[in-house]
Design goal:
Number of strands: 10
Strand content: 15-25%
Number of helices: 6
Radius of gyration: 27 Å
CATH superfamily of the largest domain: Histidine kinase-like ATPase, C-terminal domain
Shape: elongated
């Protein structure tokens, strides 16, 4: 609790200090309101920055992608027209491959901005967890244990199945790299949480707000190297990496795909004490499921 105090002496007729008058006021509510205002202002600045950067990056990525397809198309036509000259054909082929890689990066940027194309469907995220574990489990180092608590209850969310599997796969791969060659554990769990109870300290995207009554919460935690607190705000930025140049798209893609699914992610981590990611996906209830089934029948 916070208090504001003020004290002053009072004097007797002879001029000597006779005592002290003190006033103590509880200002806890005011202090908390000031802290909330500062948090809101910081969040507003983050949202405004993200919106302006998103508009600029989206426009650049779209135009860049379109130009690259023109380059790739013309290079492929040139390849068909070149007679003989293995060296010339090799140069054209290398140029075309470089353009394809550049186009792939521009698609990553669009994914980060939540502009990826997908086919949302009603699915159980537990199946995506099983698929990701089955795909990555055998490829993890023997020193890394994968612990997965499969619940008996089933959940229903509206998302693209391939996107959700990719999100979980990227996070498991990231956890495996954080553990490295040491012995460690990656634990996965899923449960539900009311929307009003989601009060994580670091939620991404910064402008995300709960809109559903209840959310599926997928937790992926590792016992790896952890994250420096000052880096938490940057780990989802495209091309940001603390490992080596050329990395830094895995978590950016995770955030972009979650934007598409109207979800969010929270991260907690301390150096040497591991990292914990929590995914939040809006749950569908009976009315939502019935609406989704009716739309599917119409289609």
């Amino acid at each position: 609790m916070w208090f504001s105090t003020s004290k002053c002496p009072f004097f007797s007729l002879s001029g000597k200090i006779a005592g002290v008058i003190g006033i103590c006021v509880d200002v806890t509510a005011r202090k908390r309101a000031e802290e909330e205002r500062l948090k809101y202002e910081q969040r507003l600045l983050q949202v405004q920055k993200a919106e302006s950067l998103g508009r600029m990056a989206g426009a650049i990525a779209h135009n860049f992608n379109n130009l690259l397809y023109v380059v790739i198309g013309n290079l492929e036509l040139a390849m068909d027209e070149v007679l003989g000259g293995a060296q010339m054909r090799g140069c054209i082929g290398e140029a075309a491959n470089a353009a394809r890689r550049a186009a792939k990066i521009s698609r990553f940027m669009l994914t980060y901005l939540g502009q990826s194309s997908g086919k949302p469907d009603i699915l159980d995220p537990v199946e995506s967890l099983r698929e990701a574990c089955g795909r990555l489990g055998p490829s993890l180092p023997k020193s890394v244990r994968l612990h997965f608590e499969i619940p008996f209850s089933r959940y229903a969310v509206k998302a693209d199945g391939a996107h959700l599997t990719r999100i979980i796969t990227n996070l498991i791969e990231n956890a495996g790299e954080a553990i490295g060659e040491r012995e460690g554990e990656i634990s996965l769990a899923i449960d539900t949480v009311p929307g009003l109870d989601i009060k994580e300290g670091k939620l991404f995207p910064p402008d995300w707000e709960t809109g559903a009554e209840e959310y599926a919460r997928i937790t992926i935690a590792d016992t790896g190297c952890g994250i420096e607190p000052e880096l938490l705000d940057n780990i989802f930025d495209p091309f940001f990496s603390t490992r080596f140049t050329g990395r830094g798209l895995g978590l950016a893609v995770v955030l972009g795909l979650l934007r598409t699914a109207k979800g969010a992610i929270a991260v907690e981590g301390l150096p040497g004490r591991g990292t914990c990611f929590k995914l939040f996906l809006p749950l569908l209830h009976r009315n939502d499921l019935q609406t989704g089934m009716n739309m599917a029948l119409k289609n």
